[in-house]
Amino acid sequence: MGGQMQQSNAAATALYDHAGAGPLHNAAGPATDAGDAVMARWLQSAGLQHLASPLASTAIDQRLLPNLLMQGYGAQSAEEKQRLFKLMRNLNFNGESGSEPYTPTSQSLGGGAVSDGFYSPDFRGDFGAGLLDLHAMDDTELLSEHVISEPFEPSPFMPGGARTFEDDFNPISRKQERREADADASVFLPTNEKENNTRENNVAKIKVVVRKRPLNKKELAKKEDDIVTAFDSAYLSVHEPKLKVDLTAYVEKHEFCFDAVLDENVTNDEVYQVTVEPIIPTIFERTKATCFAYGQTGSGKTYTMQPLPLRAAEDLVRQLRRPVYRNQRFKLWLSYFEIYGGKLFDLLSDRKKLCMREDGRQQVCIVGLQEFEVSDVQIVKEFIEKGNAARSTGSTGANEESSRSHAILQLVVKRHNEIKESKRNNNEGNEAKSGKVVGKISFIDLAGSERGADTTDNDRQTSHHPTVSLELPPPRRSSHQTLAKAVAGNLPSPLLKTLPESLSEPSSLLLPPIKR
Ligand SMILES: Nc1ncnc2c1ncn2[C@@H]1O[C@H](COP(=O)(O)OP(=O)(O)OP(=O)(O)O)[C@@H](O)[C@H]1O
């Protein structure tokens, strides 16, 4: 990720917090010429420089910008609106603490994104895929201190001998290297490299992809209206039937913009290609990624999510067979558990009840979760089928076989060293622990977003798994909070704060409609 993106993120945080009417509301000063210039450059980074001039000339308080942007301020064409919304959304999701104003650097002004507009790779980051990818966040949140404090030894098979794993796989050191190689006198060279690295990497990137499900037989038989139109790869409109005061029926259209919109003709393979596939190589670069599907019962979450882990495993196994990883004893591990009614159950160990604990470093550990080494795709398939069969399902009005729990399947790449490898043969229990986590991808198939979908008292007709049905109903939303903690290892702290709310408030991950 280039410096340009990082600087944009800082601006976003301030604007976003202001929109939330937080303390920044009072803290920010009146717009200055410098502020206008900053805003102009920010818009320019998305190729929207022409929208900046009215701001500069009328000296509008830059704190009001989010509201203006939400109203489609100045943007005329659909493409402009799309850019504006992407710009806003990018900023909204990227901030960390929120109190820092946008401060451009020579690097941010010198990048190629100005000429390329929003779509340049610089602006979007190094890669831009995955329902939720957290490639660029702070490493200290990706891996435990233990891993970070112990750098990997250099592999004798690696070219250059003295190069360490860190050099080759740590995005920070690679970035640093690139920056040094590219450096010329005009390029910004940070005085405090550590601080810069921390800031540069403390950015979460999220990709939100919407998939439209075709009308099912029941809906077709009832001649129900298709209320969603996907009209290009990033836009959709929702048609809301309404009545005027004189009771004349009309349809109100709401347009939404996402990173990608997949229509009803898209196959599961295409979903994989758009979302997970591009993340796979980064799992070997110390990335922890999470991919989840969100929607109400019957919207197609399980249909969409279920094929993804197997496809990912195929690609991960293929990568692991490359000499560079094989020589370093990289291995793939799989675990699968569910959260139901606020409790955790191991889907691969006869639904053994699991405990979730937080260690002294605020790392969430699932105590007792079994991890299995998987060296080929057939084994992965068998584990997934076993886990799926053990899941809590029930029947809802909209889905005969409805997932009533959150299921989390994790594929973890670990690096093993030979000494520990021999020990592990004597001590199977510690097998999984003997490897160091290189990267991880978690797939979460959520229970429906309707209230109480994941609680034991949600539906009288729901036929629970016998062990589950004996439990007392937990308080509402407790499973969502448990889920947030369970994936905590993957999420940077700003996101963590919002996740439980996001999961219970369907609209919080969506953007407001574009007013045409
Ligand atoms: N894109 C699609 N194409 C064809 N059929 C689909 C598609 N998406 C979903 N379906 C079908 O719709 C039904 C409901 O889908 P699914 O079980 O995935 O919903 P869900 O969102 O997981 O619901 P719940 O929250 O109740 O578990 C299933 O029979 C599934 O096969």
Characteristics of this structure?
516 residues; alpha+beta; Kinesin; eight-stranded mixed sheet; three-stranded antiparallel sheet; 25 helices; 17 strands; disordered N terminus; disordered C terminus; binds adenosine-5'-triphosphate; microtubule motor activity; cytoplasm
What does this structure look like?
The protein is of the alpha+beta class. The protein folds into three domains: 3-191, no CATH class; 214-263, no CATH class; 268-506, 3-Layer(aba) Sandwich (Kinesin). 38% of the residues lie in helices and 18% in strands. The protein is built from 25 helices and 17 strands. Strands 8, 9, 10, 11, 12, 13, 16 and 17 form an eight-stranded mixed beta sheet that branches. A hairpin with a 4-residue loop joins strand 4 and strand 5 (235-243). Helix 1 (3-19) crosses helix 6, helix 3 packs antiparallel against helix 4 (52-58) and helix 24 (478-486) packs antiparallel against helix 25.
Write a brief caption for the model.
The chain is α+β, with helices and mostly antiparallel strands.
- Rounded to an integer in angstroms, the radius of gyration calculated over CA atoms is 24 Å
Largest sheet: 8 strands, mixed
Helix content: 25-40%
Coarse structural class: alpha+beta
Inertia-based shape: globular
- List the total number of helices: 25
Q: What is the CATH domain class of the largest domain?
A: Alpha Beta
CATH homologous superfamily designation of the largest domain: Kinesin motor domain
